[in-house]
Amino acid sequence: METIIKAATEIRRAILELVPVYAEITKVEFEGPRIAIYSRKPEVFLEKEGELIKNIAKRVRKRIVVRGDPQSRLPEKEATMFIKEIIPKDAGLSEVYFNIVTGEVEIEVSKPENIDSSVRYEILAKTLWYPRFIRKPPLSSRTLREIRELYRISANDRLRFLRDLGQKIYRVQLFQDDYVRITALGSFQEVGRSAILIQTPESKVLLDSGIKPSSNGDEFPFFELPEFSIDDLDAVVITHAHLDHCGILPYLFKYGYKGPVYMTEPTLYLSKLLFEDYIRIAEREGRVPPYTMRDVASAILNTYTLGYGEVTDISPDTRLTLYRSGHILGSALVHLHIGEGLLNIVYTSDLKYARTMLLDPAHTKFPRAEVLVIESTYGGSQDKLPDETEAQLNLAEIVLHTIRRSGVVLIPVLAIGRAQEILLVLISAIKRKLIPEIPIFIEGMIDEVSAVHTAFPEYLSQKTRELIYSGENPFTAPNVHIVKGESREEIINTRPSVILATSGMLTGGPVLEYLRLLADDDRSSLVFVSYQIEGTLGRRILQGLRTLTFTNSKGKMEVKELKMEVRQIEGFSGHSDRRQLTRYLRHISPTPRLVILNHGEKTKIGEFRGYLVNYASKKFGLNFNVIAPQNLETLRLL
Ligand SMILES: [Zn+2]
Predict the structure, then answer these.
(1) Which residues does residue 499 pair with via DSSP β-bridges, in sequence order?
(2) How many angstroms is it from 44 CA to the middle of ligand 1?
(3) CATH number for the domain harbouring residue 264
(4) Which of 522, 545, 568 is the last residue of a domain?
(5) What CA–CA distances, in Å, run from 539 to 499, 507, 536?
């Protein structure tokens, strides 16, 4: 305890030395990894483009936030009046909420980009409430509402959590860093249950905590290893909202984890949707889910969101930065800086190193990067995907000749990522007049996921972001219809049209109902746009299955001949193929000295490693060691 106070006191002293007396500081406190400075004249900190905050941040090397002194804040009613007056009309103000615990006023507007920095200054100076502008998505999102609500009703718990977290992060380092170890808890020489433990004498950090879907019950990472103890963890970092990377997170809370979870803001919202869905499916199938919504709420309340490029202390010897990984909305690659310049680790998680409609490619420039852990899903010798532009043209061509036959194009999609990408591709094809403007119906979890996308345009590709800012939001195009209770018979008789529905591999969901209705219609097309796992109905159809058995709405068995045109389009993957992975290894700067392969089937990992060691490293002059550990192995990196 004494050492904690010492560290905190030093930070306070440094701040008081830099801040002029007229700023009237009343207290300095931890707010998670950030330092909150309370003041009676908080606007002083925003002057000259926040020069003072920058100077303090540079000196204490921590993130700084400014809060108005609680006793001096303007009463809520008067503050609301002032805010309503000063927010420009074209920003579209919809809600003002005062968070009495943090001293922030949350201002919901439809266009935060129309508010300039002087407005922030004026609001803080006049009301002493720190303004936080929140984007109101054009599609209303239940998830956004629920999480915001949860934070509001738990504001006091949340603040206590952040104070304690700050104390822990800024404890004085007790042990000298003389080793760094990495332990493979899951996703090594396999795909699924991603989990990596990074250990130093001072801290323990868990990267991802996913599940591996399997027909005999989902498999979890090897948490029973002696190296792994929930109580000793300093932090959990989640790279993105796919169950094989985040699916088991609430389970850690069920078993007593009380520490922080770091991820981007979109990942928080999307993973809540996934957890809910996971629990619901388990219950429907008569299984006991591994965790409950209460554990999900605990995980959400202990989550601390970070934007791309924000350097953050997560323990006395470890600094975390998340960067764009190009895979799905909010997905991140992880950079860990350990010790003062001792070791830097980059973990790519799922990586797309190419431009897609939805997202810009993965980040490549790091201050330092000695060790790289990179995925290898499509690292095999046969893994060459067509370019996405080619895939786009293929899709347009299929849609066009289905239209000529007056048919319906049915596309099974995964709710997160692929559905939005295909929607953007179709809208762009219409805009370029490759196909006529026809109705697009979407159904499944897709609408809620799309709503989350519209709340975070800053995470989307530059092209799509600019479209949204200029008022042409492809997610709300007039021909896009979210199916809510309309009869599916009616929808399939709206011709021509495109239907996007979950699940992506025909393993359940509304897509099966559409398939039942359309199966024997030879004018319509069934188009697969993602990988079909062995054993799924999607895969069996691709292998030639043409007699399908359905259970209709009355619970009766129905056998139908599949007469639709069946097509598969490759090239829409959110992963990198072998060429893209290799290009990433050539472009990452600086070149790492050690490359660790994970997230790939055993044979593909073997092929990829052989290719890198025997061919690519010589051809491209890359001097790194390439290894492919197995699950349960621990490696000393330093
Ligand atoms: Zn993924």
Answers:
(1) 410, 441
(2) 44
(3) 3.60.15.10
(4) 568
(5) 20, 10, 5
Residues in contact with 376: Cβ distance below 8 Å, sequence separation at least 6, in sequence order: 581, 597, 598, 599, 600, 604, 605, 608
Longest Cα–Cα distance of the chain, Å, equals 81
Q: List 561's β-bridge partners, or say none.
A: 547
Tell whether the model's pLDDT for residue 392 goes beyond 90.
Answer: yes
pLDDT tens per residue across span 82-110: 999 999 999 999 999 999 888 999 999 99
Please give the average per-residue pLDDT across 453-479, as a whole number. 91
The answer, yes or no, to whether residue 60 has pLDDT greater than 90, is no
Percentage above 70 pLDDT, the chain: 98
DSSP letter for 78, please: H
Closest residue by Cα to residue 313 from 331, 337, 343: 337
CB 229 within 8 A of CB 370: no
Measured between alpha carbons, how far is 598 from 634 in angstroms, rounded to an integer?
Answer: 14
183 and 299 together in one domain: yes
CB-based contact 603:375 (threshold 8 Å):
no
**CA-closest candidate to residue 343, choices 321, 362, 319:** 319
**Distance between first and last Cα of the chain:** 30
What is the 435 CA–ligand 1 centroid distance (Å)? 31
Q: Please give the distance, rounded to the nearest whole angstrom, from the Cα atom of residue 231 to the centre of ligand 1.
A: 28
pLDDT in the model for residue 552? 79
How far is the centre of ligand 1, averaged over its atoms, from the C-alpha of 629 (Å)?
A: 21
Please give the tally of structural domains in the chain: 2
pLDDT at 138 over 90: no
Could you say which of 548, 568, 588 is where a domain stops? 568
